[in-house]
Structures are given as structure tokens and as C-alpha cells.
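We close this part of the discussion by returning to an individual protein. The amino acid sequence and the C-alpha cells for this protein are reproduced below:
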Amino acid sequence: MKLISSLICLLAATQVSANLATDYMQGRKVWERKTEIVRKGLVEEPVIEGTYDQTINHFASKPTDATFKQRFFINANHYKPGGPLIFLPGGEGDLRKTDVLRGLPYDMTVKHNALLVTLEHRFYGESSPSTDPKDLWLLSVDQAIEDFHKFTSTYEFKAGTDTIKGGKWIAFGGSYSGNVAAWLRLKYPNTYWAAHASSAPVWAKEMFYEYDQAVEDAIPQIGGSKACAEGLIKTHKYLDSILLSGNKKKILDIKTKFGLANVTDVRDFASWVTTVLAASVQYGPTYDFIGKQQTISAYCDDTVISSATASPADRLDYLAKLVKQYDEEQEITIEYISTKTKAEIPRDSWMWQVCTEFGYLQIARPGSHHLYSSLIDANYFQHQCRVGFPKVIDGNTGRQVKHIRPDTDAINKKYLSTRITKAVSRVLFADGTVDPWARLGVYKQKSSRRNEIVTHFGHHCDEFSSRNASLPWRTELGAVWDKWIANAPPALP
């Protein structure tokens, strides 16, 4: 799938992958490549690493002292008394010390003598209350928000000879953790004085077919062309005609041509081979490559796919060559692509949240005109949610946790979806217009006296890259924070 074209901004936040379980993994691969590219711009500073004894169940029916170790990183190198406190809530991935050494949060830390802190999200990285999938009922955004609030409210932070406990914080996140940053401001406004929500899909939507449309729209904007987008649509439609034909020999021949003969579920196969370009759209073409060439260029620069005279079979042959090369470059395996029938933590933690809370299922859009394979539909993802987990029993109620359909209504009711801008103040929402996830955010709204909304031509979580520091939109974001911080109350009591 490409759910992810997950979210991974990683702060916590995927490329695209064949199914829910692999979305996060492929997103991590693209993010690691992206991190490697920008590593030269990272500073070398000492970072404090530690763990916090966190409550396992904040909503237990009976009080309990049970805790787990939750990892954190702190950059206290620039803090001076009176400086702001910046908190990066973890998202759907493991933390790294570089999270407090890059991008706009780091720039703000240096400029304003701030304390910069991040805490890993429960059930990701090294911060799991349990590694048994039956305990995934303890993974929810509600539990995570309580984790973050308790940590920032009770932990004694050290910065030189200074001890910092409590105080007013700026919550700063991107992608899913951008949601969390805004929701911390919503739920605990006395603890979180302001927030920054980058590329935040605050609208929980089960069937996110708009992602398909966004990728098609973006192809001409990132170095491709409309002809290339149309050529891909025709190629994928031709592929679907074979996969849906019921002709086992033809289907095996096609899978073999792509080097994926052993992928048993044709939906996994179709999902993977028709969604590769989503990484170039979500993260930007400079971070997604086939060999030494940008993936968008390999697909679209005077290729068979863009040709108006090429036959469907010729286009499909060319597509197979590209996907095989991409798979080799990304070290993709059959196991990696195939739907998972046994959950693992933390590999499938995001899949659990998608199946139970957020949806974000990137299906082919309705109708006959869609970029993704028509096999990528609601039934496909619901199948993954159904087979991906053993029976999970809620320890509070004793009842089985349903995960066939995500409870997006509950999430949108509690956290207000795109209506959140009417209920909070001092939240800066930032979106790249090319980023497909912006379609679940507030980018179409206007700034107000309560909040700032900044859009720019760009991609997912762009402000977490140090490469963008001199761009005009980054300057605009920095100016908002300069103004807000200049008028902020003392961070500490």
C-alpha cells in the first residue's frame, strides 16, 4: 500500500509500499536516504539521551504503578534561563539524536536560547510497553498524548546548572506528530503555550482516495509531464486488465516480468508496482532515486511511458524494468511486499493505529480514471487489518478490540478535524502544496488572529530539513515564531 506514503516525517512521521505493514518500512528507507543527503548540514553537538518511567495505562479502571521505559533526547546546549521550551512529540517511528540537531526546531533553539526535547512515541523504536501484539490495545493517540503531557509536566530537565520542571512549552511536530502537537495545545493549553503542526493530516479519513489524485496532479510539478501521468494511467489500466482476467499463466508471466513471481496476492503486487512515484511526490524528487537518476526522471524523461505512440505492452515492459531496478536499489524483498499475517512490534505499530483510529487508506480513486491500480480498494485494506493481528483484548473492558474499520468518527469528534483552527490559538499550521497529505489538513484555510496558516510549494515536513533554511517560506515561518516568542510569557513559573 502506501499508506504512508505514510506519514513519516519522521520525527517521529512512507514511501509507498505494497501494504499497510510495509508502508512504514519503505517510508523509513526513503527517510534514511533523505537524512543521509542532508547529514553534511547537521551540526555536531552533545545530546543527552535517557529514559523516562512512563505509566503503561493512563486510563486503567484501577490505579496501577506499572511503567515502561520511554526514550528521550535533549539538546540543552543553547539554553539560557528565560528561553523557551520546545517539545517534539514522537511520531510513527523511532527517535534519533539528529531529531534535536536539525531543521527549524533546531534553528529556533539556537536563535532563542531554547531547550529542545523529544520523547519517543509508545510502541515505536525502543519505547514499547510490550512486544506482544495482544497488548496493542495500549497503543492509541489518547495514551500517547497522556505520555507526552506527563513527561513535560513532571520530568526535571537539566541544562547546565539549571533545573527545569513544569513550565509552558511549544509543541512542535510534523505529519502524525504534527497532529499530536496541535492536539496537545487543544487538550492542555496551560502546559503547551503554542504549537507548530507541519504537514498535519488532522482530518482522519478512512478511504483517502485523494492521495491518488494528488500524485497525478504533482507529476508535472516535480519534473514530469501530463503525458507521463496519462501514460502511467494507461499502463496501470492495462496491467489491471491482465490481473483481473483470471488467466493464471498471463498473471504469472506479468509477475515474473517484474521479478515478483512469488508474490501470492495480486493485490500486493499491483499495489507495489503502481505506487513507486508517490515517494517522489511526498518527499520531493531529490530524495528518491533509481540508481543515480531521480525516479521521476527515470519514469518521465522522454520515455516509453510518456510516448503517445507506444503500445500498452511496450509501456508495461518499460515499467517492469524500472520497478525491478527500483526494487534492487531499495533492497525490496517478496516478504517485504506481501501482506503480513503475524504482527510484530514496532514494525506493525502504525498499521494498528491506521486500522483502529485514523484510516488514511490510500485507495485508487473512484471511477475509471485513477493512477493507482483498481485492485487497491477498501476490501484490500480491510483484509490487511483483519488478518494482520491476533485477537487483541482490551485490558480495561475484557472485550475484543475491533480493528476491521478505523473509528475515524471518534477521532474527528474528539480532536475536531479541520475545525481545530476554531478551537485553538497560537498554532502555526504549515503545508507543502505538492504534499498529498495536505489534502487532509487546513491548508485551504486562511490565517486569523488566532492562528497562522502558511503554505508553500513543497513537500512533506520540509521544515525538518536543514537544507531549506534560506528559502522564503522558511523565513516566513521563522518570523512567525520570532513574533510569538517575543510576546510570550515566562516559560517557567
